[in-house]
Amino acid sequence: MMLSALQFSRVLARPHGDTLSTCLHTSSILLTTRRKGRKGSIKTGSPPKTRLAKSLKATGKAKRLGKLEVAPKSRPSFIRDNVPHEGKLPHEHAFSNRRREPERRRPDKPLSAEERHFAAIAHSERAERRTEATRERRGTIANLLEQEFDTSSYPSLGALPQSFSSPPLLPGLQQCLHELIGGNAKPTAIQALALKHLFVNRDSKERWTECLLASETGSGKSIAYLLPLLQDLKHTELASLHSSPSPRKPTSKKPFNPRSLILAPTHELSRQLAGFAKRLSHMIKLRIMCASRANVPSTAKEKGTASKMKKLINVLDNSDDAEIIIPSGGRTSRPVDVMVGTPMKLLELERGRGWNWEQQARERALLVNNDNMPEQNTSQEASSVDLGRKFWVDDPEMGLENVEWVVVDEADILFDPDFQEATRTLLADIAAARGRPVPVSALPAPAAQGSQQKSDSPQHISYPFNLLLTSATIPTSLSNYLSAHHPTLTRLASPRLHHLPRNLRTEHASWTGGNKDADIERRIRRVWAEDSFVHVKNAYSGSDPVKLSKVIVFCNKRRKVGELGAFLDGRGIKTVALTGTADSRQRGSNHHLDGFLKRNPSAVSISPASPAAPAPSESDPAVTPHVLVTTSLLSRGLDFSPDIKHVFIVDEPRNMIDFLHRAGRTGRAGETGKVVVFGRSKGRGSGRAGEMRKRVGAMTM
Ligand SMILES: Nc1ncnc2c1ncn2[C@@H]1O[C@H](COP(=O)(O)OP(=O)(O)OP(=O)(O)O)[C@@H](O)[C@H]1O
């Protein structure tokens, strides 16, 4: 069991670049796919973990199956007023090359909130009509994705809340929400579903909720799960205030006793989620902590002594929004409301840092042996390997008995057959700590292609806490796993699940046949030329520097990231090139992504009438990085700045799941965005590029 758990951490912190270590686990999963069948990677013949589920309905022989509700299609995606994205509604945005009348762009009299609301609805209806028209024109191509997830077959189960006031939120929570997304913001489809289903009925017989939240990228899933979570934590705290003098008193002697956990696949996402949760809860005074730190090894390196290692690790970083904890013994007990981290970091806190060193060392030895002498004797070699030095194991620092909520963000990754061991081990530890152990046996391999899981008596798992899973993509493997082990789980989905966000446009670019890096540079400069053109046309203010778009470039391999980064730097385009093992990640904060991740709205000066003018150096791409080159490491969950209007996919994505997450780093929260997919238009590889084009086309419907 532990082997896979260790694989998980190894993929995140693998030292050198073979292909498998290219990037985050997503890609390593997908690479496995490619090895098995290169040509089949984006075809329906791909394995269940890389194939999108056709249906979210629970299947199986369980007496009671969880309900599924899909929000109706007619809901407009995003309605808000001034924050967080400079106050622009979808209808106020346009791509640079579109001609518009200046009077209409910059009305003297700003629209009232109500007018904006109806304008957004009208916009959404127009978009819907356009989509229908395109669908008719494209005929069969559109059906490519409809075969995967057809929302039209799900009847609506009744009205959904139209505002964030039903059910009523705590005043402090409501105020923080307004600060973050604007006073007139309306719930998105997935948020409306969460408001309807997730506000715990304290009188209900069934105490614990299990729910899957599935909706397209950038559709506000974080708020969808944070609101019910934070509100319930506060209610519980207030209720216990009346019954006991010290409501937050921890029941164990361990330093940290969180009441809820949020699990995320990467250190960066953990940091961002913790910061976001902190901003959302600062008025209701809940304590949010982040337990994640990239690339800090759990065991001593070859040259390090135990004491040196401890010194290295006991660094407290308070530079970000949320408090960061790095394990260090002997602190006094502190109540924590929400603890965010990767499953491995949380396991380390709970079991003691270094708890799995022996297994890790064995696995490393196995890896070395596998590289040098494939196939024979590997297990023998591994078991006889001299583990060498003395490793230390810290005392456990986190008690789990208070945990009442667990959120698994990016659940398809964290429940992926390759990585679910760490997640499930942690969940089982919580259940055991709360006095209702659940078995953690090895699961059967995912069902064979095209079939549902065929186990006669799959083991139903019922955890003694609320469990929320979220993802923008539900692969068949996750769907099967949930049907087999969580048949009563409620499934909530937005009608655009497995599609690109509505405001995200796609474009296919052909390689010229020469230097690919030069092709990419040309394309980046073209984006900036368009920005300049729009700036001049709009004549916002003659002397203001042009606000150039930022671009994320996704590659498949770590080596390619380094090469392209160096090439662009050499051409005067300052670039951040980031892979899983970059030194900048090891420092623990998200500063290596400054300028790319979305900032706290309170730190952004917002004035819709006069867009903020960047300082000259900020707008100079030779001085301030405007391009981020990375692998799938950063494709999951991160909320990038609305300045990122372009995502370039320069290596063919391994499958549509990978594509959806990469593309979804732009076009978020109703913003416009464009994804440019590079490929061959003729010769070798052009056939696959053509198929990719069709699939991408279907995802825009
Ligand atoms: N109702 C709303 N109105 C306006 N903006 C919103 C609303 N809900 C969320 N947002 C904003 O949308 C952005 C995207 O939200 P979030 O990161 O939660 O998306 P997501 O669905 O989790 O995306 P991903 O699948 O990529 O993780 C955030 O900047 C958030 O502040």
TrEMBL record:
Q: Which InterPro entries match?
A: DEAD/DEAH_box_helicase_dom, Helicase_ATP-bd, Helicase_C-like, P-loop_NTPase
As recorded in UniProt, its EC number(s) are 3.6.4.13
Q: Where is this region: Disordered?
A: 34-114, 604-623
Q: List the biased-composition ranges (Basic and acidic residues).
A: 82-114
Q: Does the keyword Nucleotide-binding apply?
A: yes
- So which domain of life are we looking at? Eukaryota
The GO terms describing molecular function are:
ATP binding; hydrolase activity; nucleic acid binding; RNA helicase activity
Q: Which residues form the Helicase C-terminal domain?
A: 519-701
Name the chemical reaction catalysed here.
ATP + H2O = ADP + phosphate + H(+)
Q: Where is the composition biased (Low complexity)?
A: 604-622
Q: Does the keyword Hydrolase apply?
A: yes
Q: Supply the Pfam families for this chain.
A: DEAD (PF00270), Helicase_C (PF00271)
Q: Which UniProt keywords apply?
A: ATP-binding, Helicase, Hydrolase, Nucleotide-binding
Q: Which residues form the Helicase ATP-binding domain?
A: 202-492
Checking SUPFAM superfamilies in the record gives: P-loop containing nucleoside triphosphate hydrolases
Instruction: Tell me which PROSITE patterns the record gives.
Output: HELICASE_ATP_BIND_1, HELICASE_CTER
Q: What is this protein called?
A: RNA helicase
Origin organism is Scleroderma citrinum Foug A
